[in-house]
């Protein structure tokens, strides 16, 4: 798989993830708790992904170490959801989004520390432009955010570190394993964690027949089925820093989706932020593409 193909698939996964806030808002508007959304989302996602894996003609035997590694890596996805949603209990959604999107520079930091790959100047530029775009796209400048609760800020920042970690390990753990097996194993790890944390007693009462499963289905497809599959396929072929930058396409998609589906008003400053994020995402790829063409022309001339 080429870098361009991997970048495209990863961007699709991150973009689909941007639809999840729609289902969160609809779920909360219907009067359900976030625990019901997270639990139902993970149960449905694990079921769908394992059904897909069962239809694979070629059965692969995995070692216990590989299985445990993938499940452990998958818990980062569940941890991200837990802290991100809890952050929104204490701070406005726009602030929680900005805190989560610190994963852009956190991912670059992980690659620097763990892979010993120092960020280049274009990477620094891309990260700065992305974070500025996030501030505008999240509409952070229109409200008074003085005296924000410490817990809300802490939970939001933790979600940034865990989400960056999830993207990082998606390209590092058991990369030789078929993506159709990697994704369900990772989500299973996330599901086990969520069940331990929330201890969902409602699964054994009449509440289990309520309509929150419909919102869980939407959250599962766009938050825990398609994105992990796309990440499992593409992340092993991308540098961690590039993967985290591509992941920021989630916010523009979330803002546009909320505007179209929920009829939420999008300001001029938000549109500016969206354009800036999209430009930042494409900055590195356009630059590398130009350099590749120049090198190709030079090689043709020398021949």
TrEMBL record:
Domain EamA: 10-137, 151-283
Transmembrane segments: 7-28, 34-55, 67-85, 91-114, 121-142, 148-169, 181-202, 208-230, 242-262, 268-286
Membrane topology note: Multi-pass membrane protein
Lineage top rank: taxon: Bacteria
GO CC annotations, alphabetized: plasma membrane
Keywords noted in UniProt: Cell membrane, Membrane, Transmembrane, Transmembrane helix
Subcellular localization: Cell membrane
Pfam families assigned to the protein according to its UniProt record, in alphabetical order: EamA
Family: Belongs to the EamA transporter family.
Protein name: Multidrug DMT transporter permease
Taxonomic classification: Bacteria, Bacillati, Bacillota, Bacilli, Bacillales
């Amino acid at each position: 798989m080429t870098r361009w193909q991997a970048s495209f698939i990863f961007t699709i996964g991150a973009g689909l993830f941007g639809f999840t806030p729609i289902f969160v808002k609809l779920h909360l508007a219907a009067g359900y708790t976030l625990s019901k959304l997270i639990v139902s989302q993970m149960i449905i996602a694990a079921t769908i992904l394992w059904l897909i894996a069962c239809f694979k003609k070629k059965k692969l035997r995995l070692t216990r170490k590989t299985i445990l590694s993938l499940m452990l890596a998958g818990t980062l996805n569940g941890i991200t959801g837990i802290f991100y949603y809890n952050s929104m209990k204490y701070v406005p959604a726009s602030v929680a989004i900005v805190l989560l999107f610190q994963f852009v520079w956190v991912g670059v930091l992980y690659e620097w520390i763990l892979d010993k790959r120092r960020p280049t100047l274009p990477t620094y530029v891309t990260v700065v432009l992305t974070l500025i775009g996030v501030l505008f796209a999240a509409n952070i400048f229109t409200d008074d955010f003085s005296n924000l609760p410490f817990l809300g800020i802490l939970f939001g920042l933790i979600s940034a570190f865990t989400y960056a970690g999830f993207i990082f390990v998606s390209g590092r753990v058991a990369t030789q394993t078929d993506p159709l097996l990697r994704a369900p194993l990772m989500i299973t790890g996330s599901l086990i964690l969520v069940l331990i944390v929330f201890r969902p007693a409602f699964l054994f009462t009449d509440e289990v027949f309520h309509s929150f499963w419909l919102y869980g289905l939407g959250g599962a497809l766009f938050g825990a089925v398609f994105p992990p599959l796309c990440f499992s396929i593409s992340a092993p072929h991308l540098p961690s820093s590039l993967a985290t930058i591509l992941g920021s396409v989630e916010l523009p998609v979330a803002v546009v989706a909320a505007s179209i589906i929920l009829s939420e008003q999008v300001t001029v400053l938000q549109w500016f932020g969206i354009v800036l994020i999209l430009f930042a995402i494409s900055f590195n790829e356009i630059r590398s593409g130009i350099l590749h063409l120049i090198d190709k022309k030079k090689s043709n001339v020398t021949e």
